[in-house]
């Protein structure tokens, strides 16, 4: 399992682009994790699924609301990672008004999630393999803080905790 001091696993994530530009085409675009994290401080939070109750009512809105404060604390980007496809993450981002604040990163086949060891098996609930709820502060691809929630909890991966950690880093 991923821990503080580890380098993020290499791999790819997808993001649905609403506007063509900066070398990105409209629609799903694939990004190399190593290239995206190089030289940056990134607040990453992951959750079990798009449109799920806690994720939609608390987790994403908290990061959207704290985006400016996180940037003021030196965070270059904020990522939301979920085991959903890029189309779903794009639609959810529109609904949550994340544009310019939180990058909605799709881990459609759970490859990144499996590589971190932070999987959550929700097969019994009809959702298959998902991500645990967590947050981490990553600097130049290296995990500096890691906040993993207990089953069914939302206590340590919130935007307020990440903001305090970003200020201290």
Provide the descriptors you would attach to this structure in a database record:
9 strands, Glutaredoxin, alpha+beta, Thioredoxin_domain, 31% helix, two-stranded antiparallel sheet, 169 residues, single chain, seven-stranded mixed sheet, globular
Description of the structure:
With 169 residues, the protein is an alpha+beta fold. It has one domain: Glutaredoxin (3-Layer(aba) Sandwich), CATH 3.40.30.10. It is built from five helices and nine strands; from the N terminus they run ββαβαβαβαββββα. It has helices spanning 33-37, 53-72, 86-96, 111-116, 159-168, and strands at 12-17, 27-32, 41-47, 77-82, 103-106, 119-122, 128-131, 134-139, 142-148. The strands form two sheets. It has a seven-stranded mixed sheet with strand order 2-1-5-4-3-8-9. The chain has a two-stranded antiparallel ribbon with strand order 6-7. Strand 8 (134-139) and strand 9 form a beta hairpin. The chain starts with 11 loop residues before the first strand and ends with a helix. Belongs to the peroxiredoxin family. Prx5 subfamily. InterPro entries: PRX5-like, Redoxin, Thioredoxin-like_sf, Thioredoxin_domain. Its EC number is 1.11.1.27.
């Amino acid at each position: 399992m991923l821990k503080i001091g580890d380098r993020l696993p290499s791999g790819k994530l997808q993001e649905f682009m609403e506007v063509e530009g900066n070398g990105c085409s409209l629609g799903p675009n694939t990004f190399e994790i190593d290239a995206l994290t190089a030289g940056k401080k990134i607040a990453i939070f992951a959750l079990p699924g798009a449109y799920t109750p806690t994720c939609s009512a608390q987790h994403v809105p908290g990061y959207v609301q704290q985006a400016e404060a996180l940037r003021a604390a030196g965070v270059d980007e904020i990522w939301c990672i979920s085991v959903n496809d890029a189309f779903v993450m794009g639609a959810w981002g529109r609904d949550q008004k994340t544009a310019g604040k939180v990058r909605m990163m799709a881990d459609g086949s759970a490859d990144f999630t499996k590589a971190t060891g932070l999987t959550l098996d929700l097969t019994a609930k009809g959702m298959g393999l998902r991500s645990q709820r967590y947050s981490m502060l990553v600097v130049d691809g290296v995990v500096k803080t890691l906040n993993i929630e207990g089953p069914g909890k939302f206590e340590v991966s919130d935007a307020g905790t990440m903001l305090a950690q970003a200020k201290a880093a």
